[in-house]
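As described in the Methods, two query proteins were run sequentially through the folding procedure within a single session, without resetting any intermediate state between them. The first query and its resulting structure tokens are shown here.
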Amino acid sequence: MLSTRRSRVAVGGAAMAAVVAGIGAVTFNASAAEVAAAPAPQAADARAVAPAPQGADARAVSIPFINQLIKPPAGSRPIGAFVVTNGTQNYTCGADGVFPAASTPEAQLVGTGGKIHHFAGPSWQSLRDQSLVTAGKVNDGVAKAGSIPELLLKINSHTGTGILSKADYINRLFTSGGAKPAGSCTPGQVAKVRYGAVYVFWDAPAGS
């Protein structure tokens, strides 16, 4: 069990490092210990990201291997990437005695720009400067067996000024776990299912 957890943590750190490398000039401020605490994505998703360009074009880099279905608009610039260090997808059993497909997140993220609280809305709030965004998914995303899907979400509200102020889109990538429980349940019962993911925030061109 311990060796399995260590391998999952190692893969999670590798996935985050790959994404951070891909966003170039954005500074990664999380400590190695904070990243190591994250629930790791599955090994199959430890996909390499191309080295970041240098100089004036560093922030214009795209992250390869994002499925075409969930790519942000062309010309989008990455603002930052954050890994889930502790998170659950929470499902409330319906009156019909089964868990619905929809869930409510409750997670702590760490990455470029410090820490973010991810919660109902869905909402993301910087713990460094209190800037906050809410967003809705653009489509159903990319399905993954046994895990919540990878997604592209479009931000629909901003509150405050800070690291999230210019964000227009969010990718949820490298997902593991978090899928709704199978079988019957007691109406009103809440199931908290642990998950891992990396969230990338994008500043899109005007009008996107």
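Immediately afterward, the second query was submitted; its sequence and tokens are:
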Amino acid sequence: ESIVYYLIDSASLPPSPPLPPSLPGVWSAQGLEMSTGKVPFMEALNGSTVLLPCTYASCIGIKNLYFNWQYNDNGTMQKVCESVIPSDGMDPHPVSIYRERVEFIGTSDHNNISILLWNITFEDEGQYTCFGRNPKEKGKNHSAIFTLVVVDELRVVDNTLTIIIASAVGGAIALLMTFMLVKNFILFVLFKIEERKKIECLVQSSSADETNNVSGSKTSKPLTPKKK
């Protein structure tokens, strides 16, 4: 059998369909993520020392990760500290501090880049932004905000509603337990009464049988043989 080859002009072919765009979810799953915790705010007493938490995460790792903390001063972002983390498992060095009473306490063990604010004042109140940029992810960056509220004294939480609800629930449980105890006691008494009635009935039946047997023996006459 002979093989026939056909020459096809590529210009005559229909254009190839365009490739589908990349899914944003795929990139975001590998993107850098900064986090200030599940509760990104705090109410602290004036003069106390507070922790501003922040951690970073990246599925593909980091290289020369740049991070900083910034304070929002009425719309003007003031840099608090900054540094670069060379790679995974390495601590940043050095860390530049631009604000008084600030201490960097981060560690590479848990991807931690948190800071401490010592002896806070009312001027420290506001929003703090934890920012990071990872060159390994083509400069992917992300930020998270932590809000600090400074007060003269901590507010006393009004637990009146909680106490009322707890009392109502406790009262309902106690009432239910009392009802169950009374119910069980009544059932026990009824059972004993029924059992006593059965015993009395058996005793009466036994006495009646004995009386009938005795009466029958007294009334029966002996048979006399007939004379021939």
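The radius of gyration is 45 Å. We note this only descriptively and draw no conclusion about the first query from it.
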